[in-house]
Amino acid sequence: MDLPALIPIVVIALYIFSSIKILAEYERGVVFRLGRVLATPKGPGVVLVFSPIDRMVRMSLRVEAMEVPAQDVVTRDNVTVKVNAVIYFRIVEPTKAVIEVANYLYATSQLAQTTLRSVLGETELDELLSQREKLNIRLQSVLDQHTGPWGMKVTMVEVKQVDLPDQMIRAIARQAEAERERRAKIIHAEGEAAAAANLEKAAEMMARQPVAIQLRYLQTLVEIGAEKNTTVVFPLPMDILSSVSKLLDKYTKEA
User: Fold this and answer.
1) Are residues 76 and 149 in the same domain?
2) Which of 23, 102, 169, 231 could make an S-S bridge to 43, C-beta 3.0–4.6 Å?
């Protein structure tokens, strides 16, 4: 076979070889044939794309993480904070992700920033700090609703960090300190009330058994004597004092 006859065969072979595309397991190829998109994406594996009739756009089906830059958010109670977040999403319909939006990454980033400001702006500062899981679910729901027509699925949204002004940090610290003092006073008052109730019961029991007070005297002497001190305590019954007082009154009247 002469050389001029081999040239078309070589050109056709090179054309077929260049038309072979290999897509990974996590990739899909959206093919446009004469400007019209094919109903079913190609892949994974070996696919044929006959240029210039066909044009293929590779799309990844893996989960992608996108960081939302810090946004200035004014909460419902008029506190300005800086909040940043991270979004996890994946493409579930490659055809829609290509034909419904020009750049799905840029569009998702802009939508996430505006959604973060609008949703967190409807909450108070205490809710933002204490109910972050609830806000994450709400952000995910809003983003998933808006990105669904683009063939995307938002799997998770996490608020990463909330930066507070220095004045607000000091105010929160004072509030926490006041709360701890309030709890301490309540616990102390409850302890005093319980002690008073027990002392009342003990006094009633001792009133029914006068010997019990003498036993308490002796126990107190034992406890004092166990310590290394020079204090001497001598219990004086009140009956003796009352008898002496009567004698003094009688002597005064006779005099």
Assistant:
1) yes
2) 23
Full residue range of the structural domain in which residue 251 is found = 211-255
Query: Which residue carries 């002597």 as its tokens?
Result: 251
Buried b (16+ CB within 10 A) or exposed e, 76-95: eeebebebbbebebebebbb
Same domain, 159 and 99: yes
Amino acid at 125: L
Model confidence pLDDT, tens digit, residues 95-137:
999 999 999 999 999 999 999 999 998 988 888 888 889 999 9
Phi-psi region of 34 (alpha: psi -120 to 50; beta: other; left: phi over 0): left
Cα 218 off chain centre by: 59
Residue 55 shares a structural domain with residue 25: yes
pTM over 0.85: no
Q: How many domains does the chain have?
A: 4
For 4-36, b/e burial (b = at least 16 CB within 10 A) is eeeeeeeeeeeeeeeeebebeeebbbbbbeeee
29 close to 22: Cβ distance less than 8 angstroms:
no
